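In the previous lecture we treated proteins in isolation. Real proteins rarely work alone, and many bind small molecules. This record shows how such a complex is specified: first the sequence, then the SMILES for zinc ion.
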Amino acid sequence: MLKKNIIIIVSILIISSFLYVIFTNKEDEVKIDNNINNSVNNIVNNKNEYIYQENLLDLNYTIDEIKLIESKIKDEDVRTKLLEKKYDNLSKFLSSPYFNLNNIERYENYYQKNQNYTSDEVVMNVEIGLDKDFYTDINEITDYKDVTTLVNKYNKLPDDVNFDDLVTIDKSYSNGGNKQLRKVAYDALVQMINAAKNDNIKLFVVSAYRTKKTQESLFNNSVKKNGVNHALLYSAKSGHSEHQLGLAVDLNSVSDSFENTKEAKWLKDNAYKYGFILRYPKNKEYITGYGYEPWHYRYLGVDISTKIYQENITYEEYVVKYKK
Ligand SMILES: [Zn+2]
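The predicted 3D structure, ligand included, written as tokens:
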């Protein structure tokens, strides 16, 4: 009797689906086939079970984990990316707001090697790219004129950049020579240096925009002078320096001793108000790839700089949190 009813219902479904296609001519056949299959499944099982529950149970996910997967991952993604094998820490990673299913394998591998990190940190670090060595898996930047462009050891400027808004820094704001910056950064810099002056703090630029060639020789000289490890920690390979963006400056003194000066302290506390961030902070070397550089400031505009200052994060973290 039940079987007979099912056959009747299924027949009605098939016929009505058929008519639907004829009259609307909108749905493709595959979708209708799926609808019919789902309808049949529902009738036979007589319950509204999550479509991948059985598959996920077979992979040894718990009911709670399956509920989480159902609520957070689209069916299509579950079907194409999660039915092959079990990811032991998937539910932990899923709680991170920066979770990206495409990187689940990388999260698992990184977590295996870094068990001291929380699952949130694992997701953040992998999204930054830290599971890969610096200067590997390099992405060539296309929108290099954008003021918010991220340049680091994973993101390289093209060889043929061409800025039409470089201006010469007035000598009263530098230690001399022909130094340039993009106009938007220069205007903000002038404001900052003038404000510092009002607080009896003297700031001046010792390094600003660099061409690819200048950066290349600076890096090579640093290798010769200090060895490759030191050079990698304090100097950028050509194409990977923010100085090539025309939005970064080194101020007063490129020396560790600058850290304890009142000028360095003023910058740390006030630069964000003018749109600059301390780009390579202390204890964030594992993220930025650079040692602490109390003299290096990057222009990003007041809004982004303020957020970075308030949250005490690096620009890499900012990009994952707010730009991705
Ligand atoms: Zn610098």
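Summary for your notes: The CA atoms of residues 68 and 256 lie 49 Å apart. Strands lie at 139-140, 155-156, 166-168, 180-182, 205-207, 248-251, 276-278, 296-299.
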